[in-house]
Amino acid sequence: MRALPASLAALLLIACGDDLSEVSGPPPEGASLRGNSVVTAIEPEEPEPEPEPFDDEGYEALDFTLLGEFEYPVYVKVKEGEELPEIPEEVRAQDGKKIGITGFMNPVRFDREGVSEFLLVKDILGCCFGATPKMNHWIRVRMKEGERAKFYAYDQLTVFGDFEVSEELEDGYVMSIYRMTVDHLSRED
Question: Region 161-189: what's the mean pLDDT?
Fold first, then answer.
């Protein structure tokens, strides 16, 4: 670190308006750093509590390979007389199962308490930074009533819960084909 020239140091002392010629050592505990300072004590952050143990027995591991290996458009508008794109039978067979699946969080609904609904996407490039993911490359995930999850921007999460496979329609559009309600989620290290 370079020392300030004496003339510059003197200008800084004059500009700050305090006579610091008699000051030596650190300020007394609790003293303001400057007369009109808005500096307050900084409380150390509390460490994140250890997660409660979760028994994943009864949950079937699933990954996005099975869910995303067939073609399904990004947007689907249902027109009268047209059929919906086909979801393969082996994927439909996952409906109603308790599963665990790993992906990245893209928050949809959140408040000060945390995230109440998010999209679980298969990779981070399908999240906020890349192209819009195909409909079968994400899961609409909802927390249970009144519960919130912490927002994890770049960390992989494993979500455990009840899995639904069906077209959710709204105003003639397919809004989702995969949905989950969370029993538990954990951040992958």
Answer: 92
